[in-house]
Write a structure and sequence with these properties.
By secondary structure, the protein is α+β, with helices and mostly antiparallel strands. It is built from 11 helices and 11 strands.
Length: 292
């Protein structure tokens, strides 16, 4: 496994990819994790952890790892058997956390999928800008490895489709197209065509709950993305709508106050921050603003 190493132990590896995240969802543009302010706490504070993250590898090396497991080069047969056996809870029941990829037990660091295709172990991985999938069929010595270095909502579906194709089964039923976001196209129209066009779009579809969903957090995040890009008027419109739609949420007033503060409307910002803090006394940034 010559291309596998601990991050930081090999400088100047021109073959190593960087991870990419969606910078702002209303634009759909990507940025590398090295440039992203969103993940600095992760990329800066957690770079000295090794094991759950910060290990560089390739699909070829990971296949060698799987083959070495099968040949007991890394762990002897007894210890490997223990690792591939589900843990038991205090009441004696088998630990079955399950997850996106169906019912599964949990051994020593491995998920143990339950199916009739053979003995299998698997694990997934995720950190900002990276997704990994490792599925090892012990019975047939077959391994599925998928790696992605860009944020994608379709990675899990891709893994399931690969499994179905390789095994010529339909173990994983692909979910039918679900409801669409109402606020994402709203924010895009707000950005491109202005508040009147966006309001018209929203009012036309807001009752169509069969095809669209509305999520407070998403609208709030889209408004803050616009604010981060200094699209102040558009951000104010989105965050104002958020306070009107979700008046019981302290966070909507906090975000709206931030937008008002950014454009210099201090009086209105104080009022919004005050309301936010009254609803949630734990809002320390809001308290700090009011104290100043």
């Amino acid at each position: 496994m010559k291309d596998s190493y601990l991050l930081g132990n090999r400088q100047g590896d021109s073959n190593r990819v960087t991870g990419y995240l969606v910078r702002h969802h209303y634009l759909g543009d990507m940025e590398s994790i090295s440039q992203s302010k969103k993940v600095r706490r992760w990329s800066y504070n957690l770079r000295d952890l090794y094991g759950p993250t910060n290990i560089v590898s390739t699909t070829t090396d990971l296949l060698k790892f799987a083959q070495a497991l099968d040949r007991y080069k890394l762990l002897d047969k007894k210890l490997l058997s223990q690792a591939f056996t589900s843990c038991r809870l205090n009441d004696g029941a088998e630990a079955m956390p399950g997850g996106e990829f169906g019912p599964a037990g949990y051994g020593m660091g491995w998920f143990l999928p339950v199916n009739n295709l053979g003995k299998m172990v698997m694990h997934t991985g995720r950190e900002p800008g990276f997704f990994t999938f490792f599925w090892h069929d012990i019975t047939h010595h077959r391994t599925l490895i998928l790696l992605d270095n860009a944020e994608s909502s379709g990675f899990g579906s891709a893994c399931k489709e690969v499994f179905n194709i390789v095994y010529n089964v339909s173990n994983f039923k692909l979910a039918p197209p679900g409801k669409q976001s109402l606020f994402l196209p709203y924010a895009r129209i707000l950005f491109k065509e202005g508040p009147d066009a966006a309001a018209t779009f929203y009012n036309r579809l807001k009752m169509d709950t069969l095809h669209y969903f509305a999520d407070e957090r998403e609208l709030n995040e889209l408004g803050l993305e616009l604010l981060d890009d200094h699209r102040d008027l558009e951000a104010l419109e989105a965050l104002k709508l958020c306070t009107l739609l979700y008046p019981q949420s302290w966070n909507t007033y906090d975000s709206y106050g931030k937008a008002l503060q950014q454009i210099g409307k201090k009086k209105e910002a104080i009022e919004m921050y005050r309301k936010s803090v009254e609803m949630f006394p734990g809002n320390l940034p809001g308290k700090k603003f009011l104290m100043n």
